[in-house]
Amino acid sequence: MGSKKGASDESSVHRVWVSPFWMDGFEVIQEQFKKYQISDPSHFKNPKNPLEQMNWTDAARYCNERSLAEGLELCYDEETWDCNFDANGYRLPTEAEWEYACRAGTRTKYSFGNDVRKLKAYAWFAKNSSGRTHPVGQKKPNLWGLYDMHGNVAEWCNDFYSEDYYKKSPEKNPKGPATGQERVLRGGAWNWRADSCRSAYRASDPSIDDTCLASDTIGFRCVRRAPNEKSPEENMAKKNQAGRTSKTGFLYDDIYLKHKTTEGHPEAPQRLVAIVERLKAKGLHRQLFPLTPSPAPLEWLTTEHSPEYIERVRKSCEAGTRYLDSMDTPISPKSYEAALAAAGGVLTAIDAVMEGKITNAFCAIRPPGHHATKDKAMGFCIFNNVAVGTRYIQKKYNLPKILIVDWDVHHGNGTQAMFYDDPGVLYFSVHQYPFYPGTGSEAEKGSGKGLNYNINVPLPAGSGDGDYLRVFEEELKPAALAFSPDFVLISAGFDAHKDDLLGGMEVTAQGFAQLTQVVKGMAEKCCKGRLVSVLEGGYHPEGLSASVEAHIRVLMR
Ligand SMILES: [Zn+2]
Q1: Rounded to the nearest whole angstrom, what is the distance from the C-alpha of residue 408 to the centroid of ligand 1?
Q2: How far, in Å, from the CA of 41 to the mean position of ligand 1?
Q3: Cβ 182 vs Cβ 161: under 8 Å
Q4: CA dihedral defined by 101, 107, 108, 111, rounded to 10 degrees?
Q5: 371 is catalytic
Q6: pTM value surpassing 0.70
Q7: Span 313-325, pLDDT tens digits
Q8: Which residue has the higher pLDDT, 166 or 442?
């Protein structure tokens, strides 16, 4: 590695050993990336062009998604972004691996020799790129058949950058310094000069954060540990195992479609149809552990609702009443049955987690629940599914501390009211404000022993992924870790999606994936990952189903 004639950070010239590995022949292209529903940030759009505008974290996340899809072990811990080099999945190359692969046995300036005039045959760079990236694989490969190792887009390596690392690095499998601010980039890009496309040229970039976009010159390719002789069987075994059992449950039943609202009402059966169809189309449905609800027993329903109210719901449905309590909660004859199954579904999912069948679950249920109060239907909600689930966990499983994260665009007034003076339940809601139902100001912090166990983060209309993620990192995380829950429930409304018909927020499906990751990370830290996510709102069928898919993909990792 290195070059005597290059910059000081390329010295010394030295020999390193790297264990056998496989490397992609091409830089990762835009159509590959889209497959995993990570939003493509590239500036020069073309399915065959390399990705660019790529931050390091999303490159690593892609590696994990690709591993997951192929039944391989994940290399990256998505909390710390530490890399497990023993895992057999995809990761970014170390700098040493990258240079070894680029050189393909050569010691010259470029993989084809020292003559810079030949560079145009091998690379897209400042002199011949016409100011943009190009589809991969159009130039000559190096001696080992790897394309675009010089030029097109600069490629992320796994290593943190340090100027003098190679003056004292280990000889065997050097992996860069343990910590740092910037990651290594290799290989030059379409707007770089010839000298910066050399095999030994080192660059770096600080864009290692989710929220920080890289420039349109930065992409990547993946490597994998070379499978040893036993590995194919080992991999097959793992793949089969992954196909048979999943750690994520999916709760659904057609009974939920029988709760009919009024013509043109946004809370329509079609919402769940769109979710199930999308999961099937994406091949995710069969990877999930199927869960079927039982109706919630009255003994559990009455922990949060008055017997008079429950009876009123039953009779109103039976009598064919059109609305329950207000015009915004239409009902139909089967609504009582569906509402019992919605609350019961949450209990079924909780049981499956507690019995160790799964680690987490998503409940695709309706009617939703978080506006429902002790004795009143409200805002499309009949029974408060998450609240009933909360008491169930506390009483049946003797787990005292429950965290409820409510990211529905509306404030969960019902849930807040039910646990307002309860220090055993940390209710955290982020929502559009001022907005329906009118509650949810920062000043509502809980009362009595429950003071400070109710956290509202009202956000103005127009808030997006960055705003939500900041709230989760800066407000939810410290509060939740201090609380250290025994179980985590999500009131997962997806009506903060940018296309939603009711909400005025700008959250994307990828944004919901990031929020999921934060909550899941906390569940893993505090309570062995025990988490049940329960559908609340979300009224744009495409936006809703894309968000649920992104959400579930993170739960499955
Ligand atoms: Zn809502």
Answers
A1: 5
A2: 29
A3: yes
A4: -20
A5: yes
A6: no
A7: 999 999 999 999 9
A8: 442
